[in-house]
Amino acid sequence: MPNRRPPETPAPADAAARRAVPPVICYPDTTLPHPAEDMLAGARSGLVLRDSVTVPPREARCFRACAGQVIRIRSIKGPQVGDLNLWNAADLSERFYSGKTRALHGTHVTTGDRLWSSFPSLRPMATVVRDTLDWYGIDSFGAAVHDVIGTRCDPYTHALLSDGGQYHHCCHSNLTRALAAETGLPAAEAERHVHDVLNVFMCTGFSRDTGQYIMKGSPVRPGDHIDLLAEIDLLGALSACPGGDCGAEHSSDTAPCHPLLVEVFDCALTADWTPPRVNAYDRSHGAD
After folding, report:
1. pTM over 0.70
2. With 0-12 CB in 10 A as exposed, 13-18 as middle and 19+ as buried, what is 92?
3. 154, CA 20 to 30 Å: which among 58, 143, 196, 244?
């Protein structure tokens, strides 16, 4: 059990009835712009490889994709989790918003789900068009694959939980170094742009008794991949997590780790793709 104080307030007489109130979905997705089947089909056809980047274990690398291209993240040598950041290639202030993606689509994403950008743009940055791990679903522990729950392993939390331990290959630091190398920004400035991630291939959930964030060994195997249609011009960075398949620990030099491959393809949609407009809110915030 976690280190938590027991409740001090006695339960009211109607506690059971209060707990039995049925939930509702916070953000019903019936009015979201869902990808059409012909869009998914177009993103899967006519694939022509244009670029590839190998991400070494416990490191990160950047890549770029134009609007209408397909980004494939692939396991190539062994079970490995990757932490993904995405930015508007022309404006680093527009970046992947994992919290809103989670609120709109759920704790884990798969085919047909979109990765949304930060305020004020709040538009689709990319759409999942293929997921070879979609068979996994939600297991008996409440865990699923490709999470938008976790924030990325980072050296600050590592230091907090290890009495000041210093570790420089957490995904946060890996992404910082990669972005700095790609853009020429100083590391301290690049770090400000690193953000909460899509945990590609990571198998996670919440414990049913304590509500804590849990992870288990990823089911990914060589050849498995997730494909993302870039809806705007993207700069991406992927870290091959030092936890390997995250079955036991992360921020570790002992977990078996493997490289990941990022491939960028033209597809049947590329030549005629039109990026989505930024969000329609007028940004007045009710001010006079």
Report:
1. yes
2. middle
3. 143
